[in-house]
Amino acid sequence: MEEINWESIRSDYPVLDKCTYFNTASSGAIAKSTADAMRAFANDQLSNATLNRSAWLSEIEMTRSAVAKMVGASESEIAFTPDVSITMSLTAQALENKTRIALLRDEFPSVVLPWISHGYDVTWIERAQDQTFNLADFEKALNDGTKIVTVSWVHYNSGITTDLVTLGKMCKAHRALFIVDCTQGLGAIPLDVKACDIDILMASTFKWLTGGYGNCILYVSNEIKDQVRQKAMGWSSLTDFGQDPSIRANWKVGASSYELGHPKYSNILTFSKALQKIEAIGIAQINERINSLTTYLEDRLSSIGLSPIAPRLSRNRSGIMTVRLEKSIYDRLNCDQIIATYRENYIRLSLHFYNDFKDVDRLTEAISGYSHPN
Ligand SMILES: Cc1ncc(COP(=O)(O)O)c(C=O)c1O
Description:
Elements: H1 6-10, H2 15-18, E1 20-21, H3 32-48, H4 53-71, E2 78-81, H5 84-94, E3 100-104, H6 109-117, E4 121-125, H7 135-143, E5 148-152, H8 164-173, E6 177-181, E7 200-204, E8 216-220, H9 265-281, H10 283-303, E9 320-324, H11 327-335, E10 338-339, E11 341-343, E12 346-350, H12 357-371
Parallel strand pairs: 1-10, 3-4, 3-5, 5-6, 6-7
Antiparallel strand pairs: 2-8, 7-8, 9-12, 11-12
The structure holds pyridoxal-5'-phosphate.
């Protein structure tokens, strides 16, 4: 197989000329071709109004196929929604008859808030101080009558990944729905929804999928689609626009029932270009690249006395690594154009395929330079 020219790929992301970017967990860098797609859509609307709408719709369908292929689903199981927050809320609203849910402590708010606000009976699965948790606690909750488990695949702060295969099997054995937010992993780690027995998956595309804001991938397994009955509806909720809306049989079910109004053309077409780029590199190759970069980062940090807050075992790695650091050092990094996220005594570093080993050297040399100025 031909060797990947990471340097040439990196040159497609102009922000990397300006700063050392460790902030994909906040928002992915955008490629020139992705920004071109955003501009092209605006220009097309400017010059052609609706004249090219059928071409936009074909590209959306092409993108749906590409997403289905990426996660091992069928096209009818994929929809595009604006973000995770709305998608999780629609899901919590649609499943209201299922009252018992198991949620992990310290999740990103959009993963848990919709269930709390809809009055679900929550069993909280606790995390240890290093952010790890015990899958046996989910088993116990399932034995106690939990009917839904909702987790994020990669934790937005510590970067720990959930073992989806084991948890999915547990849920399946207990006939509980398994719902996963993959925003911090999809695009960086390979995933097969069927192998993980996921019933509903969602992932915003502006981070590791590098696809810009305002777009979220949704997968709803055809096997459980009848259990998800939308209460939020719009003109696109009908199986055919001309049908009588008062007849329930004319209402869509499954993934497509989340697409209530007009497609968010600009956002989906922008994402489409980014996805083509990611596919051309290959997610397995991206994952290998991230693993070697983060392994190097861990070694370099260790050489200056810093270590990740969460254990980095080969089975639970992601592109996110969080280490304890004083705010004053983070502020200096920021001034030196080394960009990351700071939270409560921790710095969150996130590395994607477009980072390189020199980025890691720049970071660790800067940190040790602040402590030992020449
Ligand atoms: C785990 C997780 N899910 C979702 C999101 C984004 O939520 P939304 O798509 O609603 O903006 C983030 C970060 O912004 C996140 O870390």
